[in-house]
Amino acid sequence: MAYSILYVDDEAALLEISKLFLEQAGPFTVDTACCAADGLNMLCNGTYSVVVSDYEMPGMNGIEFLQEVRNVYPDLPFIIFTGKGREDVVIEALNHGASYYLQKGGDPVSQFAELAHKIVLAVEKRKTEEQLRLDEQRLEALVDFHEMSDMPFPEFMEYAIEAVTRITGSQYGFIASVNDTEDGLLMYGWSQQSLKDNRIPVLNKDFPLHHTGLWADAVRERRPVIINDFAATPGGSPRVPDGHIPLTRYLGVPLLDSDKAVLLAGVANKQTPFDEADVRQITLLISGLWKIVVQKITEDKLRDAYTKMEESRNRLQGQIHSLLSPSSDAPDLLLTDLISADDLQMIQDAFADACNVSSMITDTNGTPITRLSNGCTVCQHIRSTEMGAENCRRSDCMLGKKAREMMKPTYAACYGIGFVDASAPVCIGGRHIANWLIGQSNPMGVTEDRVAAYAREIGADEDVLLGAFEQMEVMSLDQFEKILHLLWIAAASLSTFVYVNVRLATGALQVEPCGGEPTGGEYKKYPCSGVTCGK
Predict the structure, then answer these.
(1) What is d(CA 303, CA 306) in angstroms, rounded to the nearest whole number?
(2) Residue 525 above 50 pLDDT?
(3) Where are the domains positioned within the chain?
(4) What mean pLDDT is predicted for residues 95-110?
(5) What is the CATH architecture assignment of 324-506?
(6) How far apart are CA 284 and CA 238, in angstroms?
(7) CA angle at 144 for the pair 442 and 135, rounded to the nearest 5°
(8) Per-residue pLDDT band at 224 (split at 50, 70, 90)
(9) Is the pTM of this model over 0.70?
(10) Which option is the CATH number for 3-131: 3.40.50.2300, 1.20.1290.10, 3.40.50.2020, 3.40.50.300?
(11) How do strand 78-82 and strand 50-53 relate by DSSP bridges?
């Protein structure tokens, strides 16, 4: 690492000697000034790692110079290097924030070696303190993210953008999501200062990647991009639209999830150059942010689906109560006789996508009625082997049998690898006609050793299966419990819908309410819909 030094002394000859010694002693670049006033001007126009100053100088002595520097640059390392050795000067220098006090004199080689050592110590100490401060701010921001996760999404992202901008000490910032095909960006928003200083009349939200300039290179190159002299970068200024905020420095950091770019965070116009410490802070911050974003998106989808299904169930329940007539045996019909296969597949696909689980509807013997929705890569590999497919079929049959016997939602570890599957019965007039299954989730903590052993057992490619398992999302028991609750409501709604179809087509079917709960673990008790299973 190169250390940029501003050395201020009224002795021109000493300045030249000091510059020569220091630049030969280590990775130092030294600028010199003959008085404190010139030193202040140079600080305004340049970036330095440390200031070294004499004490006795005309116009403004070293302590006064230190006070002026501290007013503008409170954390910049400052070393008093002087022939004065009075104790009161040392105390005054340290009280005003000098990093070190070093007395001139003695062997020049030893003296400048000591000065070089003090410079390194002062700069590294400042870097360590700054890193600790940034780490503390980042941890506070992550805690705030969790505490504020219930906020409306736009307000939550607005806070996150301000946090990213603040922690890097930047003037401007933004966060954007990368679309699934990685050829476009959707802006979550810009920092407040960006909105205030921008002169573009309309700020777009959607950006095709091929229309973006340097600021999206991080997505194209799939790595952080640091530009500490934007105007001097080939193609820099011409690629910024008219009215855009003038950029001097820029840092873009992409977030990769399963080797896919999902987020882009950008900050600009920091007073000092961006470096790897800024990359680290942003990467850690948006990694934590992304987990909460995914959770919020999933919860929003789940909440919307839950609300719609509750509304549908309540509406259809009222209809069915008005249609009830004396009971009769349910006709011996298949589920696809009562609802089209396409509609059934559409409902199942939407449920699986919203809840991020795999899903399938089978007959009472475990034979698939619909195609598998949202199947995970691990299970696809397992089902591609003869033994793996047979084990999956046996698991489906086992759950179907249990659901038929109990007329309640149930769950269990699958017969093969040990992922958790769940099933809810679809009933009409007290007759069990189908099962709605979800699964291929790992809330019970199946390990890599178990995956490797199962791959060998069924004759699957062990490396391929382990690679797919590493990319598999982990779902908590609490989240699985919520989805199981929703599955029970959805299955009950489907049963109600089917019943109405039968009632309209064949006549009245009298059913009696029942109460039921998922079984098989420490799940909460969920009441049955009360109108469909006839239990």
Answers:
(1) 5
(2) no
(3) 3-131, 148-294, 324-506
(4) 83
(5) 2-Layer Sandwich (3.30)
(6) 32
(7) 95
(8) very high
(9) no
(10) 3.40.50.2300
(11) parallel
